[in-house]
């Protein structure tokens, strides 16, 4: 049986194929093997190089952060003196510039500090939809101020030439209207939202017709300090609305004693400062956790206010939500004091992109079921830029570092 199989194989190998074709097949096989071996060797080289770089950078950064656990006493003193000098410099510089940046040591206490003189520039929204040059369109609306009734009437007429989505070349636009009251003095740049409205959503069109009408009572002495902000957005059922553009007008510069119609070109949306929040950060390397302290919240508060506010603090790592915590309800005032701390697990703060988002909400009842967003503050080790507060926390481990942050909306 074995001899029969051998004879069949022998006959197959002696097929009428020329030697040139056989040598061609052999050369192609050898060439394919060489190419495969070169590619495999190059991939192994890249993997080993990347692994060595990560190990080297990891040992360097972790060694700098945990010198107080692994090095001798002299090095510990040098690190402590460096941290102390950094903290002293942080406390002295705001006194010269009229700013405030506190270092909180030990228990958190309601320090009577403020940051009225600290200025925060209006930040542009950093999303692709708002940075594209194609986010251009026009918005038509009309304004009327009835001096006899002290009533402002706004009518949203239509929008034209709005940008569509990439996949459908259409949109579901709506307009969000905010009346912002500027502070009476230039020492503070915190604006107060007097009224906020939203039009209906018009489906599947880049030229929506709205026809929504809004009205409110405004005192004559407030009219000069009111900014009307109209944001055009593309509706998303998961509340991730795409920003298309905005229109801003200062009512003090307009004569709207009679109905005036406007047709304004949309511009990139800008965020407004509606408050400030004092936060403390502390990194615990042994426990691999960070402690976020919510100390104070400063907002523009009307005189007859009976609403409560609370904070929602969320940690994101590599653009993924890790943990979410809420503070207790507090009566809203010009400066609301919390002094509450929250712990978050942070396994690798050196290599991960981390962000802490603090959202301040205003509630309509004591249970906190009906809520309204006042503003947000973001800080952390992000790709967008370097965060001084986060870097200072990482350089002064086991020490709480406090700093004021703007609430933006």
Walk me through this protein's architecture:
The chain is of the alpha+beta class and 409 residues long. 25% of the residues lie in helices and 37% in strands. It contains seven helices and 17 strands. Strands 11, 12, 13, 15 and 16 form a five-stranded antiparallel β-sheet that branches. A four-stranded antiparallel β-sheet has the order 5-2-1-8, with no helix packed on it. It has a four-stranded antiparallel β-sheet with strand order 4-3-6-7, with no helix packed on it. Strand 15 and strand 16 form a beta hairpin. The longest helix is centred in the N-terminal third of the chain and has 47 residues, at 19-65. It is flat. Residues 59-135 have low confidence and may be disordered.
* Number of alpha- plus pi-helical segments: 7
* Number of β-strand runs: 17
Strand content: 35-45%
Which outline best applies?
flat
CA(first)-CA(last) distance: 87 Å
The run of helices and strands is HHHHHEEEEEHEEEEEEEEEEEHE
Largest sheet: 5 strands, antiparallel
Overall pLDDT score: 79
Uncertain residue ranges: 59-135
Overall helicity: 25-40%
Instruction: Give me the Rg, rounded.
Output: 31 Å
Class by alpha and beta content: alpha+beta
Short description:
With 409 residues, the protein is of the alpha+beta class. The protein has seven helices and 17 strands.
SSE layout:
Elements: H1 2-13, H2 19-65, H3 67-70, H4 73-97, H5 128-131, E1 138-146, E2 151-160, E3 173-181, E4 192-198, E5 209-217, H6 220-223, E6 226-234, E7 242-250, E8 260-265, E9 273-284, E10 289-299, E11 308-317, E12 320-326, E13 330-331, E14 335-345, E15 354-363, E16 371-381, H7 388-395, E17 401-408
Antiparallel strand pairs: 1-2, 1-8, 2-5, 3-4, 3-6, 6-7, 9-10, 9-17, 10-14, 11-12, 11-13, 11-15, 15-16
């Amino acid at each position: 049986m074995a001899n029969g199989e051998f004879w069949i194989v022998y006959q197959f190998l002696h097929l009428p194929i020329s030697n040139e074709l056989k040598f061609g097949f052999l050369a192609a096989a050898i060439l394919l093997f060489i190419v495969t071996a070169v590619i495999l060797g190059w991939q192994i080289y890249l993997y080993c190089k990347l692994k060595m770089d990560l190990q080297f950078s990891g040992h360097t950064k972790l060694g700098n952060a945990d010198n107080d656990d692994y090095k001798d006493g002299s090095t510990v003193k040098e690190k402590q003196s460096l941290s102390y000098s950094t903290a002293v410099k942080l406390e002295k510089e705001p006194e010269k510039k009229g700013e405030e940046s506190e270092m909180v040591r030990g228990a958190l206490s309601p320090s009577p500090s403020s940051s009225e003189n600290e200025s925060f520039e209006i930040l542009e929204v950093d999303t692709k939809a708002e940075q594209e040059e194609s986010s251009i369109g026009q918005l038509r609306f009309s304004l009327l101020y009835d001096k006899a009734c002290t009533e402002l009437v706004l009518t949203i007429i239509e929008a034209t030439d709005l940008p569509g989505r990439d996949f459908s070349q259409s949109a579901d636009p709506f307009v969000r209207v905010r009346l912002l009251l500027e502070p009476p003095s230039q020492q503070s740049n915190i604006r107060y939202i007097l009224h906020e409205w939203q039009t209906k959503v018009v489906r599947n069109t880049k030229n929506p017709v709205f026809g929504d009408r809004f009205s409110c009572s405004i005192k004559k002495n407030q009219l000069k300090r009111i900014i009307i902000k109209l944001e055009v957005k593309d509706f998303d059922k998961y509340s991730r609305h795409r920003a298309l553009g905005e229109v801003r007008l200062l009512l003090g510069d307009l004569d709207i004693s009679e109905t005036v119609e406007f047709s304004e070109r949309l511009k990139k949306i800008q965020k407004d400062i509606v408050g400030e929040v004092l936060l403390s950060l502390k990194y615990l390397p042994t426990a691999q956790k960070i402690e976020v302290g919510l100390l104070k919240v400063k907002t523009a508060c009307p005189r007859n206010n009976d609403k409560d506010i609370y904070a929602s603090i969320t940690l994101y790592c590599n653009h993924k939500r890790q943990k979410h915590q809420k503070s207790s309800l507090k009566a809203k005032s010009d400066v609301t004091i919390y002094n509450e701390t929250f712990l978050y697990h942070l396994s690798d703060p050196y290599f991960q992109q981390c962000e802490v988002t603090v959202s301040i909400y205003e509630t309509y009842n004591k249970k906190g079921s009906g809520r309204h967003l006042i503003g947000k503050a973001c800080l952390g080790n992000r790709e967008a830029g370097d965060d001084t507060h986060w870097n200072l926390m990482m350089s002064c481990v086991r020490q709480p570092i406090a700093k004021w942050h703007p609430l933006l909306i």
